[in-house]
Automatic annotation (TrEMBL):
Main location: cytoplasm
Coiled coil: none
Protein name: Shikimate kinase
EC numbers for this chain: 2.7.1.71
GO MF: ATP binding; magnesium ion binding; shikimate kinase activity
Length: 171
């Protein structure tokens, strides 16, 4: 792992492609990929829906902060794909800003709805997923703005999005 390079941190709503883009970036740069949701699941030994149901969202959010802190305290040379709500805790935003270069991925509501359709691993979308996405997007419309760079992923393929990020990263 390359520990001298700045971390790349991806933030954004669910369905903006953080994991997919993270995989491409990590491969291209030879960096480790840390998917924060997956790291929380591994540490807690239960799925995210189970965590929300058995322990509640607040518990999940605490675990999210702890894992984020740990991941960014250690190495450089990582691509960190965060969960969609990781930006809700102001402390997390501070940890991210001082832990690497933060890229916000955005997409319009229709694109997000299309991408997350039928994904049962997202407890916040239980019920009417389309309606929930519009509500959450409205609630979070300013939450991703602290990023160093913002890339709209609605009308671009993953490779092109990754190359835009790399262009900013390499400046
Ligand atoms: O972190 C998970 C979890 O389902 C919560 C979430 C959110 O608040 O947008 C997004 C997912 O990545």
């Amino acid at each position: 792992m390359n520990q001298t390079e700045q971390n790349i941190i991806l933030i954004g709503m669910m369905g903006t492609g953080k994991t997919t883009i993270g995989q491409i970036l990590a491969k291209e740069l030879g960096f480790a990929l840390v998917d924060l949701d997956a790291a929380i699941v591994a540490e807690q030994g239960m799925t995210i829906p189970e965590m929300f149901e058995l322990r509640g969202e607040a518990y999940f959010r605490q675990a999210e902060t702890a894992v984020l802190r740990k991941v960014l305290a250690s190495d450089g040379g990582q691509v960190v794909a965060t969960g969609g709500g990781a930006v809700l805790e102001p402390l997390n935003c501070e940890i991210m800003l001082s832990g690497g270069i933060v890229f916000a991925l955005t997409a319009d509501a229709e694109t997000i709805i299309d991408r997350v359709r039928g994904d049962s691993n997202r407890p916040l979308l239980a019920g009417n997923a389309e309606e929930r996405i519009r509500i959450i997007m409205d609630e979070r419309k300013d939450a991703y703005r602290f990023a160093h760079y913002t890339v709209d992923t609605s009308r671009m393929g993953p490779e092109k999005i990754a190359s835009q990020i790399l262009m900013h990263y390499r400046v």
